[in-house]
Amino acid sequence: MRYAILGGVIALALIAGWTDTRSRRIPNWLTVPAFLLGVVLNTATAGWTGLKLSLLGAGLSLLLLLPFVLLRSLGAGDWKLAGAVGAFVGPAVMTDLLIVSVFVTGIMAMVLIVYKRRVRETLRNIRHLVVSLVTFRMPGSEVSLDNPRSLKVPYGVALAVTVLLYGGAKLGGVVR
Description:
The chain is mainly alpha-helical.
């Protein structure tokens, strides 16, 4: 049954990564049933303990990512995807996945910045952000998340890549 859980989260990652890449959306028809499936599989595998771990994994990811959704730097679909992944893997693995996904997102952002030839603009924006932090002032509109010219990294793709890396490491015996 543990392979069913791993297979389910890998299938979720593949579908979510594909849909996020193509449409920049992660639909509810994917995230809601995936959350329920994660809870059911964990409950079937480990009883009440599995149910508890599944809900804690979903709750942890939803709680940790909620500020980013409220600041509109993370989409609600990405947020719900993280909750569904947490329902499959539980809080301990989800913590690791969230940390690694930050690095995957950073790598994706650097590649996107170089590909779009926006290195100077990005460095200038980083300087504006640092000055804003030091002077306790809001940055200008050029570094706003609502700026239509800003580059956006699809977090669903980054989380999907992270889950696939985890699944490969798990199947390869690298992680327990």
